[in-house]
Protein backbone atom coordinates (compact mmCIF):
# COMPACT_ATOMS: atom_id res chain seq x y z
CA UNK A 1 0.00 0.00 0.00
CA UNK A 2 1.42 3.32 -0.98
CA UNK A 3 1.69 5.42 2.09
CA UNK A 4 2.82 8.89 1.15
CA UNK A 5 0.61 10.39 3.72
CA UNK A 6 1.16 9.29 7.29
CA UNK A 7 -1.58 10.27 9.66
CA UNK A 8 -0.41 10.58 13.19
CA UNK A 9 -3.15 9.51 15.46
CA UNK A 10 -2.65 9.73 19.17
CA UNK A 11 -4.60 7.41 21.34
CA UNK A 12 -4.50 4.44 23.60
CA UNK A 13 -2.74 1.38 22.19
CA UNK A 14 -4.91 -1.76 22.23
CA UNK A 15 -2.07 -3.93 23.50
CA UNK A 16 -0.15 -1.88 26.04
CA UNK A 17 -2.88 0.61 26.76
CA UNK A 18 -0.44 3.49 26.86
CA UNK A 19 -1.03 6.82 25.22
CA UNK A 20 1.14 6.64 22.14
CA UNK A 21 1.28 7.60 18.49
CA UNK A 22 -0.65 4.81 16.84
CA UNK A 23 0.23 2.98 13.64
CA UNK A 24 -2.76 2.77 11.35
CA UNK A 25 -3.83 -0.87 10.95
CA UNK A 26 -6.32 -2.43 8.59
CA UNK A 27 -8.24 -4.23 11.36
CA UNK A 28 -10.13 -2.67 14.19
CA UNK A 29 -7.09 -2.84 16.49
CA UNK A 30 -4.68 0.02 16.83
CA UNK A 31 -1.17 -0.59 18.06
CA UNK A 32 1.66 1.75 18.97
CA UNK A 33 4.79 1.23 16.91
CA UNK A 34 6.52 -0.94 19.52
CA UNK A 35 3.53 -3.25 19.97
CA UNK A 36 3.06 -3.46 16.22
CA UNK A 37 6.59 -4.85 15.87
CA UNK A 38 6.04 -7.35 18.69
CA UNK A 39 2.79 -8.65 17.19
CA UNK A 40 4.39 -9.05 13.77
CA UNK A 41 7.32 -10.97 15.27
CA UNK A 42 5.16 -13.38 17.30
CA UNK A 43 2.90 -14.08 14.31
CA UNK A 44 5.91 -14.94 12.26
CA UNK A 45 7.23 -17.18 15.00
CA UNK A 46 3.95 -19.10 15.25
CA UNK A 47 3.93 -19.66 11.50
CA UNK A 48 7.48 -20.96 11.42
CA UNK A 49 6.79 -23.22 14.38
CA UNK A 50 3.77 -24.65 12.61
CA UNK A 51 5.81 -25.27 9.49
CA UNK A 52 8.65 -26.96 11.38
CA UNK A 53 6.24 -29.21 13.27
CA UNK A 54 4.62 -30.25 9.99
CA UNK A 55 7.96 -31.01 8.41
CA UNK A 56 9.03 -32.97 11.50
CA UNK A 57 5.90 -35.08 11.40
CA UNK A 58 6.46 -35.76 7.70
CA UNK A 59 10.03 -36.85 8.47
CA UNK A 60 8.73 -39.18 11.18
CA UNK A 61 6.25 -40.75 8.79
CA UNK A 62 8.99 -41.42 6.31
CA UNK A 63 11.65 -42.58 8.74
CA UNK A 64 10.35 -45.33 10.93
CA UNK A 65 8.89 -48.80 10.80
CA UNK A 66 6.84 -47.91 13.90
CA UNK A 67 4.41 -45.76 11.91
CA UNK A 68 3.74 -48.57 9.43
CA UNK A 69 3.32 -51.03 12.30
CA UNK A 70 0.89 -48.88 14.29
CA UNK A 71 -2.02 -51.23 13.79
CA UNK A 72 -0.01 -54.31 14.81
CA UNK A 73 -0.96 -55.73 18.18
CA UNK A 74 1.51 -54.95 20.92
CA UNK A 75 3.32 -57.93 22.43
CA UNK A 76 3.01 -57.14 26.09
CA UNK A 77 5.73 -57.86 28.61
CA UNK A 78 7.69 -61.09 28.48
CA UNK A 79 8.91 -62.79 31.59
CA UNK A 80 12.18 -64.49 30.84
CA UNK A 81 14.99 -65.65 33.00
CA UNK A 82 18.18 -67.66 32.90
CA UNK A 83 17.37 -71.33 32.77
CA UNK A 84 20.80 -72.89 32.55
CA UNK A 85 24.31 -71.66 33.27
CA UNK A 86 27.34 -73.11 31.52
CA UNK A 87 30.39 -72.85 33.74
CA UNK A 88 33.86 -73.87 32.81
CA UNK A 89 35.69 -70.98 31.24
CA UNK A 90 38.47 -69.53 33.32
CA UNK A 91 38.11 -66.03 32.01
CA UNK A 92 35.87 -63.68 30.00
CA UNK A 93 33.71 -65.40 27.40
CA UNK A 94 34.18 -63.45 24.18
CA UNK A 95 32.28 -65.28 21.48
CA UNK A 96 29.90 -68.16 20.91
CA UNK A 97 28.16 -69.91 18.05
CA UNK A 98 25.43 -72.56 17.75
CA UNK A 99 25.80 -75.74 15.77
CA UNK A 100 23.17 -76.44 13.11
CA UNK A 101 21.96 -79.40 15.19
CA UNK A 102 20.38 -76.77 17.52
CA UNK A 103 21.96 -78.47 20.48
CA UNK A 104 25.69 -77.96 20.52
CA UNK A 105 27.47 -74.68 20.82
CA UNK A 106 31.05 -73.49 20.81
CA UNK A 107 32.42 -70.69 22.97
CA UNK A 108 35.80 -69.01 23.25
CA UNK A 109 37.33 -66.94 25.99
CA UNK A 110 40.16 -64.64 26.96
CA UNK A 111 42.20 -67.43 28.53
CA UNK A 112 42.66 -69.09 25.14
CA UNK A 113 40.17 -71.90 25.72
CA UNK A 114 37.60 -72.91 23.12
CA UNK A 115 34.92 -75.27 24.46
CA UNK A 116 32.18 -77.20 22.67
CA UNK A 117 29.14 -77.74 24.89
CA UNK A 118 26.03 -79.88 24.70
CA UNK A 119 23.41 -77.36 25.78
CA UNK A 120 20.82 -80.01 26.68
CA UNK A 121 23.03 -81.68 29.28
CA UNK A 122 25.50 -78.79 29.90
CA UNK A 123 28.36 -81.27 29.36
CA UNK A 124 31.57 -80.17 27.73
CA UNK A 125 32.25 -82.28 24.69
CA UNK A 126 35.52 -80.85 23.42
CA UNK A 127 38.05 -78.37 24.69
CA UNK A 128 40.93 -76.78 22.82
CA UNK A 129 43.61 -74.54 24.22
CA UNK A 130 44.71 -71.97 21.69
CA UNK A 131 48.31 -70.76 21.73
CA UNK A 132 47.08 -67.17 22.10
CA UNK A 133 44.87 -65.35 24.56
CA UNK A 134 41.78 -63.30 23.68
CA UNK A 135 40.10 -65.71 21.30
CA UNK A 136 37.64 -63.14 20.02
CA UNK A 137 36.02 -65.17 17.31
CA UNK A 138 34.70 -68.69 17.02
CA UNK A 139 32.35 -70.41 14.62
CA UNK A 140 30.79 -73.83 14.15
CA UNK A 141 31.05 -75.44 10.72
CA UNK A 142 27.70 -76.15 9.01
CA UNK A 143 28.39 -79.90 9.04
CA UNK A 144 29.11 -79.83 12.78
CA UNK A 145 32.45 -81.51 12.17
CA UNK A 146 34.78 -78.60 12.75
CA UNK A 147 35.15 -75.32 14.55
CA UNK A 148 37.07 -72.19 13.61
CA UNK A 149 38.57 -69.74 16.05
CA UNK A 150 41.07 -66.93 16.26
CA UNK A 151 41.97 -63.74 18.02
CA UNK A 152 45.19 -62.00 18.96
CA UNK A 153 47.21 -64.47 16.94
CA UNK A 154 45.91 -62.68 13.80
CA UNK A 155 44.94 -66.05 12.39
CA UNK A 156 41.84 -68.14 11.98
CA UNK A 157 42.44 -71.82 12.74
CA UNK A 158 40.09 -74.65 11.87
CA UNK A 159 39.94 -77.64 14.22
CA UNK A 160 38.21 -80.80 13.03
CA UNK A 161 36.07 -82.23 15.82
CA UNK A 162 36.79 -85.80 16.66
CA UNK A 163 34.41 -88.06 18.49
CA UNK A 164 37.02 -90.72 19.17
CA UNK A 165 37.72 -90.53 22.89
CA UNK A 166 41.27 -91.76 22.41
CA UNK A 167 42.34 -88.82 20.29
CA UNK A 168 43.60 -85.72 21.96
CA UNK A 169 41.96 -82.60 20.50
CA UNK A 170 45.07 -80.46 20.84
CA UNK A 171 47.26 -83.00 19.08
CA UNK A 172 44.80 -83.24 16.20
CA UNK A 173 46.12 -81.43 13.16
CA UNK A 174 44.59 -78.04 12.71
CA UNK A 175 45.03 -75.72 9.80
CA UNK A 176 45.70 -72.01 9.94
CA UNK A 177 43.34 -70.79 7.32
CA UNK A 178 43.37 -67.03 7.52
CA UNK A 179 46.25 -64.63 8.01
CA UNK A 180 45.59 -61.02 8.84
CA UNK A 181 47.91 -58.24 9.93
CA UNK A 182 45.93 -57.53 13.06
CA UNK A 183 43.61 -59.32 15.45
CA UNK A 184 40.77 -61.49 14.20
CA UNK A 185 37.47 -60.02 15.40
CA UNK A 186 34.91 -62.29 13.71
CA UNK A 187 34.73 -65.38 11.57
CA UNK A 188 31.97 -67.38 9.93
CA UNK A 189 31.75 -70.38 7.63
CA UNK A 190 29.82 -69.75 4.45
CA UNK A 191 27.17 -72.28 3.38
CA UNK A 192 29.74 -75.06 3.37
CA UNK A 193 32.71 -76.21 5.44
CA UNK A 194 34.96 -75.22 2.55
CA UNK A 195 35.03 -71.46 2.83
CA UNK A 196 35.40 -69.12 5.73
CA UNK A 197 34.83 -65.40 6.00
CA UNK A 198 36.87 -63.35 8.46
CA UNK A 199 36.91 -59.80 9.79
CA UNK A 200 39.96 -58.22 11.32
CA UNK A 201 41.34 -55.29 13.26
CA UNK A 202 43.39 -54.48 10.17
CA UNK A 203 40.24 -52.96 8.64
CA UNK A 204 39.58 -55.68 6.08
CA UNK A 205 37.36 -58.71 5.66
CA UNK A 206 38.50 -61.73 3.69
CA UNK A 207 37.15 -64.93 2.18
CA UNK A 208 39.39 -68.00 2.44
CA UNK A 209 39.43 -71.54 1.12
CA UNK A 210 39.72 -73.86 4.12
CA UNK A 211 41.59 -76.72 2.42
CA UNK A 212 44.35 -74.69 0.84
CA UNK A 213 44.32 -71.62 3.06
CA UNK A 214 44.21 -69.52 -0.08
CA UNK A 215 42.76 -66.01 -0.04
CA UNK A 216 39.78 -66.00 -2.39
CA UNK A 217 38.60 -62.40 -2.01
CA UNK A 218 39.42 -59.47 0.19
CA UNK A 219 37.12 -56.61 1.13
CA UNK A 220 38.63 -53.17 1.64
CA UNK A 221 36.67 -50.10 2.55
CA UNK A 222 36.36 -49.77 6.29
CA UNK A 223 38.36 -46.90 7.68
CA UNK A 224 39.10 -48.64 10.94
CA UNK A 225 38.93 -52.05 12.70
CA UNK A 226 36.13 -54.30 11.49
CA UNK A 227 34.41 -55.75 14.55
CA UNK A 228 31.66 -57.99 13.25
CA UNK A 229 30.16 -59.63 10.23
CA UNK A 230 27.09 -61.66 9.26
CA UNK A 231 26.27 -63.62 6.12
CA UNK A 232 22.99 -63.13 4.27
CA UNK A 233 20.58 -65.95 5.15
CA UNK A 234 19.42 -67.01 1.71
CA UNK A 235 20.86 -70.21 0.23
CA UNK A 236 21.86 -68.50 -2.97
CA UNK A 237 22.80 -65.26 -1.29
CA UNK A 238 26.32 -64.07 -1.67
CA UNK A 239 26.39 -60.89 0.30
CA UNK A 240 27.43 -60.17 3.84
CA UNK A 241 27.33 -57.17 6.13
CA UNK A 242 30.19 -55.93 8.32
CA UNK A 243 30.37 -53.30 11.04
CA UNK A 244 33.40 -51.46 12.31
CA UNK A 245 34.99 -48.84 14.50
CA UNK A 246 34.47 -46.29 11.73
CA UNK A 247 30.74 -46.33 12.68
CA UNK A 248 29.91 -47.72 9.26
CA UNK A 249 27.97 -50.84 8.37
CA UNK A 250 28.89 -52.03 4.88
CA UNK A 251 27.20 -54.60 2.67
CA UNK A 252 29.54 -56.51 0.36
CA UNK A 253 29.20 -58.65 -2.74
CA UNK A 254 31.28 -61.76 -1.99
CA UNK A 255 32.12 -62.50 -5.59
CA UNK A 256 33.34 -59.10 -6.71
CA UNK A 257 34.70 -57.79 -3.41
CA UNK A 258 32.72 -54.59 -3.99
CA UNK A 259 30.91 -52.68 -1.30
CA UNK A 260 27.33 -52.36 -2.55
CA UNK A 261 25.82 -50.29 0.26
CA UNK A 262 27.11 -48.38 3.25
CA UNK A 263 25.25 -47.01 6.27
CA UNK A 264 26.69 -44.44 8.61
CA UNK A 265 24.14 -43.33 11.19
CA UNK A 266 25.61 -44.78 14.37
CA UNK A 267 27.50 -42.43 16.62
CA UNK A 268 30.10 -44.91 17.76
CA UNK A 269 31.71 -48.30 17.02
CA UNK A 270 29.37 -50.94 15.67
CA UNK A 271 29.94 -54.07 17.76
CA UNK A 272 27.50 -56.45 16.16
CA UNK A 273 25.47 -56.84 12.97
CA UNK A 274 22.83 -59.45 12.23
CA UNK A 275 20.61 -60.01 9.21
CA UNK A 276 16.83 -59.98 9.58
CA UNK A 277 15.48 -63.50 8.86
CA UNK A 278 14.08 -62.44 5.48
CA UNK A 279 17.47 -61.09 4.41
CA UNK A 280 16.01 -57.71 3.42
CA UNK A 281 17.26 -55.85 6.45
CA UNK A 282 19.85 -56.05 9.20
CA UNK A 283 20.20 -54.84 12.77
CA UNK A 284 23.29 -53.38 14.40
CA UNK A 285 24.33 -52.84 18.00
CA UNK A 286 26.75 -50.09 18.88
CA UNK A 287 28.72 -48.43 21.65
CA UNK A 288 26.38 -45.44 21.29
CA UNK A 289 23.85 -47.50 23.35
CA UNK A 290 21.44 -47.90 20.44
CA UNK A 291 20.47 -50.73 18.14
CA UNK A 292 19.31 -49.77 14.68
CA UNK A 293 17.46 -51.52 11.87
CA UNK A 294 18.56 -50.82 8.31
CA UNK A 295 16.47 -51.82 5.32
CA UNK A 296 18.55 -52.89 2.33
CA UNK A 297 15.96 -52.23 -0.36
CA UNK A 298 15.07 -48.78 0.99
CA UNK A 299 18.79 -48.17 1.57
CA UNK A 300 18.32 -46.40 4.90
CA UNK A 301 17.88 -46.73 8.63
CA UNK A 302 14.25 -47.55 9.38
CA UNK A 303 14.16 -47.99 13.13
CA UNK A 304 16.17 -47.14 16.22
CA UNK A 305 15.94 -49.03 19.51
CA UNK A 306 17.04 -46.90 22.40
CA UNK A 307 15.98 -45.59 25.76
CA UNK A 308 17.29 -42.70 27.78
CA UNK A 309 17.94 -45.08 30.65
CA UNK A 310 20.22 -47.23 28.50
CA UNK A 311 23.62 -45.59 28.37
CA UNK A 312 25.93 -48.56 27.93
CA UNK A 313 26.90 -49.94 24.56
CA UNK A 314 25.20 -52.90 22.93
CA UNK A 315 27.76 -55.62 22.31
CA UNK A 316 25.72 -58.19 20.39
CA UNK A 317 22.33 -58.54 18.73
CA UNK A 318 20.26 -61.36 17.28
CA UNK A 319 16.71 -61.80 15.99
CA UNK A 320 14.14 -64.35 17.03
CA UNK A 321 12.95 -66.74 14.30
CA UNK A 322 10.22 -64.46 12.89
CA UNK A 323 12.24 -61.31 13.32
CA UNK A 324 9.66 -59.81 15.66
CA UNK A 325 12.01 -59.80 18.63
CA UNK A 326 15.53 -58.39 18.80
CA UNK A 327 17.69 -59.70 21.61
CA UNK A 328 20.53 -57.34 22.49
CA UNK A 329 23.27 -57.82 25.08
CA UNK A 330 24.66 -54.72 26.72
CA UNK A 331 27.74 -53.68 28.64
CA UNK A 332 25.58 -52.90 31.69
CA UNK A 333 25.28 -56.68 32.25
CA UNK A 334 21.69 -56.87 30.93
CA UNK A 335 19.94 -58.23 27.86
CA UNK A 336 17.13 -56.12 26.45
CA UNK A 337 14.51 -57.69 24.22
CA UNK A 338 13.00 -55.23 21.72
CA UNK A 339 9.81 -55.43 19.70
CA UNK A 340 11.29 -54.84 16.25
CA UNK A 341 8.08 -53.46 14.73
CA UNK A 342 6.91 -51.23 17.57
CA UNK A 343 10.32 -50.10 18.75
CA UNK A 344 9.51 -50.76 22.38
CA UNK A 345 11.30 -52.93 24.89
CA UNK A 346 9.35 -56.05 25.86
CA UNK A 347 11.72 -57.60 28.37
CA UNK A 348 14.92 -57.01 30.29
CA UNK A 349 16.96 -59.98 31.45
CA UNK A 350 19.25 -59.89 34.42
CA UNK A 351 21.61 -62.58 35.55
CA UNK A 352 25.05 -61.89 34.23
CA UNK A 353 27.54 -60.42 36.63
CA UNK A 354 29.59 -58.62 34.05
CA UNK A 355 29.12 -57.28 30.55
CA UNK A 356 27.37 -59.45 27.99
CA UNK A 357 29.84 -59.97 25.15
CA UNK A 358 28.04 -62.33 22.82
CA UNK A 359 24.48 -63.49 22.19
CA UNK A 360 22.96 -65.92 19.68
CA UNK A 361 19.51 -67.37 19.16
CA UNK A 362 19.55 -71.10 18.38
CA UNK A 363 18.96 -72.13 14.74
CA UNK A 364 15.40 -73.31 15.43
CA UNK A 365 14.58 -70.22 17.48
CA UNK A 366 13.72 -72.15 20.64
CA UNK A 367 16.51 -70.83 22.85
CA UNK A 368 19.15 -68.16 23.08
CA UNK A 369 22.57 -68.24 24.67
CA UNK A 370 24.56 -65.31 26.00
CA UNK A 371 28.21 -65.23 26.96
CA UNK A 372 29.67 -62.74 29.36
CA UNK A 373 32.81 -61.38 30.95
CA UNK A 374 31.62 -63.10 34.15
CA UNK A 375 33.12 -66.35 32.67
CA UNK A 376 29.73 -67.98 32.12
CA UNK A 377 27.26 -68.63 29.33
CA UNK A 378 23.58 -68.49 30.11
CA UNK A 379 20.70 -70.13 28.29
CA UNK A 380 17.14 -68.95 28.13
CA UNK A 381 14.46 -70.71 26.22
CA UNK A 382 11.00 -70.22 24.82
CA UNK A 383 9.26 -73.00 26.67
CA UNK A 384 6.82 -71.66 29.16
CA UNK A 385 8.00 -68.08 28.63
CA UNK A 386 5.12 -66.29 30.28
CA UNK A 387 3.58 -63.33 28.59
CA UNK A 388 1.75 -60.78 30.64
CA UNK A 389 -0.40 -58.45 28.58
CA UNK B 1 47.33 -40.94 6.99
CA UNK B 2 51.07 -41.38 6.62
CA UNK B 3 52.97 -38.27 5.67
CA UNK B 4 54.78 -40.32 3.06
CA UNK B 5 51.64 -40.61 0.89
CA UNK B 6 52.15 -38.62 -2.27
CA UNK B 7 49.62 -36.18 -3.64
CA UNK B 8 49.12 -38.53 -6.61
CA UNK B 9 47.80 -41.34 -4.48
CA UNK B 10 45.60 -38.90 -2.54
CA UNK B 11 43.93 -38.05 -5.82
CA UNK B 12 43.62 -41.73 -6.70
CA UNK B 13 42.02 -42.45 -3.32
CA UNK B 14 39.66 -39.53 -3.74
CA UNK B 15 38.75 -40.73 -7.24
CA UNK B 16 38.02 -44.21 -5.94
CA UNK B 17 35.88 -42.76 -3.16
CA UNK B 18 33.93 -40.67 -5.66
CA UNK B 19 33.41 -43.69 -7.92
CA UNK B 20 32.18 -45.73 -4.96
CA UNK B 21 29.80 -42.97 -3.90
CA UNK B 22 28.50 -42.57 -7.45
CA UNK B 23 27.83 -46.29 -7.63
CA UNK B 24 26.08 -46.27 -4.25
CA UNK B 25 23.98 -43.27 -5.25
CA UNK B 26 22.90 -45.02 -8.42
CA UNK B 27 21.21 -48.05 -6.86
CA UNK B 28 17.43 -48.45 -7.06
CA UNK B 29 15.75 -47.56 -3.84
CA UNK B 30 12.37 -48.69 -2.62
CA UNK B 31 10.09 -46.44 -0.61
CA UNK B 32 10.31 -47.01 3.14
CA UNK B 33 6.54 -47.40 3.38
CA UNK B 34 6.71 -50.36 1.00
CA UNK B 35 9.87 -51.83 2.52
CA UNK B 36 8.50 -51.52 6.05
CA UNK B 37 5.21 -53.07 4.95
CA UNK B 38 7.14 -56.04 3.55
CA UNK B 39 9.02 -56.47 6.83
CA UNK B 40 5.70 -56.35 8.64
CA UNK B 41 4.20 -58.97 6.36
CA UNK B 42 7.16 -61.31 6.80
CA UNK B 43 6.94 -60.89 10.55
CA UNK B 44 3.24 -61.65 10.81
CA UNK B 45 3.55 -64.65 8.49
CA UNK B 46 6.43 -66.14 10.48
CA UNK B 47 5.02 -65.25 13.88
CA UNK B 48 3.04 -68.47 14.11
CA UNK B 49 6.22 -70.52 13.97
CA UNK B 50 8.30 -68.35 16.31
CA UNK B 51 8.75 -70.26 19.58
CA UNK B 52 9.29 -67.07 21.57
CA UNK B 53 5.99 -65.60 20.42
CA UNK B 54 3.85 -68.69 20.38
CA UNK B 55 5.27 -70.64 23.28
CA UNK B 56 5.75 -74.37 23.37
CA UNK B 57 4.41 -76.77 25.98
CA UNK B 58 6.99 -77.36 28.69
CA UNK B 59 6.55 -81.11 28.47
CA UNK B 60 8.58 -81.42 25.27
CA UNK B 61 11.43 -79.20 26.45
CA UNK B 62 14.68 -81.03 25.60
CA UNK B 63 16.70 -78.65 27.79
CA UNK B 64 15.04 -79.86 30.97
CA UNK B 65 17.03 -82.09 33.22
CA UNK B 66 16.11 -85.69 32.63
CA UNK B 67 15.31 -87.34 35.91
CA UNK B 68 16.30 -90.98 36.00
CA UNK B 69 13.36 -93.29 36.04
CA UNK B 70 13.58 -96.37 38.25
CA UNK B 71 11.55 -99.40 37.40
CA UNK B 72 10.57 -101.13 40.60
TrEMBL record, chain A:
GO terms for biological process: signal transduction. WD repeats lie at residues 86-118, 177-218, 219-262, 263-304, 316-348, 349-379. The keyword Repeat applies. InterPro entries: G-protein_beta_1-5, WD40/YVTN_repeat-like_dom_sf, WD40_G-protein_beta-like, WD40_PAC1, WD40_repeat_CS, WD40_repeat_dom_sf, WD40_rpt. Keywords: Repeat, Transducer, WD repeat. Enhances GTPase-activating protein (GAP) activity of regulator of G protein signaling (RGS) proteins, such as RGS7 and RGS9, hence involved in the termination of the signaling initiated by the G protein coupled receptors (GPCRs) by accelerating the GTP hydrolysis on the G-alpha subunits, thereby promoting their inactivation. Increases RGS7 GTPase-activating protein (GAP) activity, thereby regulating mood and cognition. Increases RGS9 GTPase-activating protein (GAP) activity, hence contributes to the deactivation of G protein signaling initiated by D(2) dopamine receptors. Belongs to the WD repeat G protein beta family. Component of a complex composed of RGS9 (isoform RGS9-1), GNB5 and RGS9BP; within this complex, the presence of GNB5 stabilizes both itself and RGS9 and increases RGS9 GTPase-activating protein (GAP) activity. Interacts with RGS7, forming the RGS7-GNB5 complex; within this complex, the presence of GNB5 increases RGS7 GTPase-activating protein (GAP) activity. Interacts with GPR158; promotes the GTPase activator activity of the RGS7-GNB5 complex in absence of glycine, in contrast GTPase activator activity of the RGS7-GNB5 complex is inhibited in presence of glycine. Interacts with RGS6. This is Guanine nucleotide-binding protein subunit beta-5.
Automatic annotation (TrEMBL), chain B:
It comes from the Eukaryota. Residues 7-72 form the G protein gamma domain. Its main location: membrane. One of its GO terms (biological process) is G protein-coupled receptor signaling pathway. GO terms for molecular function: G-protein beta-subunit binding. It is found in: Cell membrane. This is Guanine nucleotide-binding protein subunit gamma. It comes from Capra hircus (Goat).
Amino acid sequence: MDQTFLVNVFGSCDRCFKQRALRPKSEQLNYCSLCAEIVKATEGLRLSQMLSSYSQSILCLVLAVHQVAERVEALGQFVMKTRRTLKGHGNKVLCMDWCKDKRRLVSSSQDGKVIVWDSFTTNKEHAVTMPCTWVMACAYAPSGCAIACGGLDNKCSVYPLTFDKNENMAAKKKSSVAMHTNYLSACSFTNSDMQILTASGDGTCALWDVESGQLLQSFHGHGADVLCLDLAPSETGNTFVSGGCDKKAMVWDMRSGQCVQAFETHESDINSVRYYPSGDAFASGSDDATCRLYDLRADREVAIYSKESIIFGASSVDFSLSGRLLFAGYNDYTINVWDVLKGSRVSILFGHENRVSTLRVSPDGTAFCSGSWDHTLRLGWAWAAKREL
Amino acid sequence: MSSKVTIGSDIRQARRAVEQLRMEAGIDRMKVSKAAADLLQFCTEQAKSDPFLVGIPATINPFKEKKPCAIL
